[in-house]
Each structure stands twice: as structure tokens, then as C-alpha cells.
Amino acid sequence: MEHPVASKRILISGAGLSGLSFALALTKLLPPSVSPPSITILERDIPSSAAARQGYTLSLAGDNPDSGLVALRDLGLLDQNLTSQHVLGLDGAGCFKIWGADWQEMMSVRAKPVQGIPAGTVRVKRSELRRVLVDAVMDRGVEIRWGVVCAGANTKKRGGGEGGRGSKVEVKVRSAESGVESVEECDLLVVADGANSKIRAELRPEDGLEYAGAIQLVGVGTFPEGVSSPVDKNWGMQLSGGQGLCCFYAPTDEHNLLWALSFLDGDMRMKQSYESQEAMQQILDEARKKGEVFGPRFRQIVDATIDPSTVLCLPAQDRKPFHQDLDTGVVYLGDSNHAVSPFAGYGANLALKDGWDLAKSLVETSSIEDAVRRFDAASFPRAVKTWTTSRGRIRDLHSTGVQFWLFKVFISFVGFLLRILGRS
């Protein structure tokens, strides 16, 4: 019997972490005896503009089999990613912490890694991680077409019933530069074009993003003399002592510190970037006023934010995962299926594992439909767990009154246990 992906055409919408992970995993896992499929990644950005927007860092876990570092190990890219960039959390240097408004440490977490992984959690530059994946994918002969927008898709009847085994998928594509549109046909469409997926919006309009109730004011402070302790090597949350605010900090390199001040707001703001000094100052002034509880050090960090391109007003948005349709020839990976807000701290891990698991399912099963079923069984529960955890963090980190004090007692107790266990 012919392998289900042998000589097939596979289109991947989006050159993000999940799409790249899938493409690389499939080329590595397919045995040489199988006639390889044609794999093409369609990405709306060009490499330079994509890299410019990805200067921030992200967390990769290595404390369980579903984590991002395990996926990178399986892809053969773990050592390359941990040696090619500014990495926090290796060799005991840095970990996740929670501080009080006065910067007193309340909890420190150093997760225990699974066997063969060097750290339980690390923090890496997204741009570097993506570059390593892009290079690896292209080395495997996968085509990436930059500046191409996937505007929508539909299945085309080709015998065997509507949307059945014999169906093709028609993908509407548009040149980002010229606007010229065309239609391409494939046997499998892997949708990996992010939280605001155009294909999901067309095929599953009911599965849009939900507002999670919090707003983040984000920027990057620049310190020519170097970022100072304790946020030079550590990352984490600062709590406001029950005032309903928190601030996340993470160094992006030796001289730059990402900060994200968050608060609950019943009215969702639209995501907005600030390209002029005047517009940037408006959001920085709001951050200074709201963050007064964090004292002069927070103001110093905000005052050091001088690049408008790093400043954002970001609503926390997410969506619960949905089960895949088994017989449409369309599969959703990463944020296109289960978008998570920054409070999850796990989106990159889900994306990398989604790509690996879909490829593994396709290689090991006898039909695309069965592969999608197996992939869904693996990806759905972990995405539900991450979504639930994220919503709980939003509630607890911005709690006030009795709820805050209960949360404070809880994290103090957990911090005490971690110190006893040598995990802090």
C-alpha cells in the first residue's frame, strides 16, 4: 500500500514555529523508501520584516515530554539553539522568579528537566530560534515562498464524496507586494498562520479570538551600562501587593530589558504599536502613572525605553482549542487552533510540539484521516491545560483583597517547598 503522503503536495500557511517544525519533522521522519511529498511554505512576510518584529524572547520548557526543548531535541536542533543566541536558564544561570512591589523575592522556580535535556526552562530570542528553523528547513529542500498571503481555502470535490478522501484543497494566495491573486491546489493544507489566521476566519468563522480581560503596556528599556540584577539573568513577575497590577520582566540581551505592565480592564483595547516619539510617550506616561506602586526602579526602566518600535498596547486574547475536522484536508497548528496569551508562557512549546506530532502521526499511520485523529488526541488536551492555566494566572496575578493574600500565601509556601527541594 502506498504511503498516504507519498508524492503528495503539502502547502503550509505560515513560516512560524509550528509550520517550520512540521516541515522539518516530516522530512526527517519519512523513511527513504517513501517517495517524498512536495512541501511548500507560504509566508506573508519577507525575511527582513519578519526578523524586525521578533526581537523579544520566549520561554522553552524541558520538564516534560510535551515541552519545546524536547521537540527541538527530536528535530536535531537543541544544541544549535542553545549555543547560537543569548540564552537564560542554562547551567544554573537564571530562572523564573516572582518579586513583590519592593523587589523582595517571593518565589524562584528552577524546573527539573527530563532526561537528556540540559535545563527545565530556558529563555531564548524568538528571532534566533526561527532563523535556525528556517535554515534547517531550507537545507532539507523545503521551499519557502516569502511575501505570499494565504487569503482563504476550500475543499474541492474530486470523487469519493464532498470533502472526503479524494478531495483536493484549493488555496487562495495573494502576492503581498503586487496584490495579484491566484489559486493553488494541494492534497493537505497545514494552517500555521497564527492567532489571526485568515484561513481559520474563512473556514471556521465562529472560532475567533476571545478577550481574556487584561491589557499589557509593553516596551524595551535600553541600558548602555548593562541590565542590572536581579533581572539581568532572571525573568519573571513583579506583583503590586494587591493593587491589581503586575509587571513581567525579561532581558533580551545584556543591554535591553523587556517590560510588560498589565492590569484588568473590562473594555478591550485594540492592539497598537507606536512609531513616533510623541505617540510612544503617551503609552509610557500611562505606564508611569499606573506603575507608581512599583517605585523608582520601575520608572527608571520605563524612562529607558527610547525605541518606539518596541512599544505596544497589547490586549490579552486567546481561544480554546477546537477538534480537527478529519476529512477536509485542512489541519490547524499552533495559534491558528489554540491561541494563548503571553500569560500562558507556553505558546512556543505548543507550536513546536504540534509540528512534530502531526508529522509523526502522518509517518506512522495508513491514512491522512487517521493521522489527523491521532494528532488531535495528542494536541487537544495539552492545549486545554495551557489555556486553563493561562486564565488562572490572569486572575491570580491581578487579584486584590483577600484573593491576593491567599495567592501570596500560596506562592510563599510553594517557594519554601522549592527551596527545600533544591529547585529554586
TrEMBL record:
<keyword id="KW-1133">Transmembrane helix</keyword>
<feature type="domain" description="FAD-binding">
    <location>
        <begin position="115"/>
        <end position="366"/>
    </location>
</feature>
<keyword id="KW-0560">Oxidoreductase</keyword>
<dbReference type="GO" id="GO:0071949">
    <property type="term" value="F:FAD binding"/>
</dbReference>
<feature type="transmembrane region" description="Helical">
    <location>
        <begin position="402"/>
        <end position="421"/>
    </location>
</feature>
<dbReference type="Pfam" id="PF01494">
    <property type="entry name" value="FAD_binding_3"/>
</dbReference>
<dbReference type="GO" id="GO:0004497">
    <property type="term" value="F:monooxygenase activity"/>
</dbReference>
<dbReference type="InterPro" id="IPR036188">
    <property type="entry name" value="FAD/NAD-bd_sf"/>
</dbReference>
<keyword id="KW-0503">Monooxygenase</keyword>
<keyword id="KW-0812">Transmembrane</keyword>
<keyword id="KW-0285">Flavoprotein</keyword>
<protein>
    <recommendedName>
        <fullName>FAD-binding domain-containing protein</fullName>
    </recommendedName>
</protein>
<dbReference type="InterPro" id="IPR002938">
    <property type="entry name" value="FAD-bd"/>
</dbReference>
<keyword id="KW-0274">FAD</keyword>
<keyword id="KW-0472">Membrane</keyword>
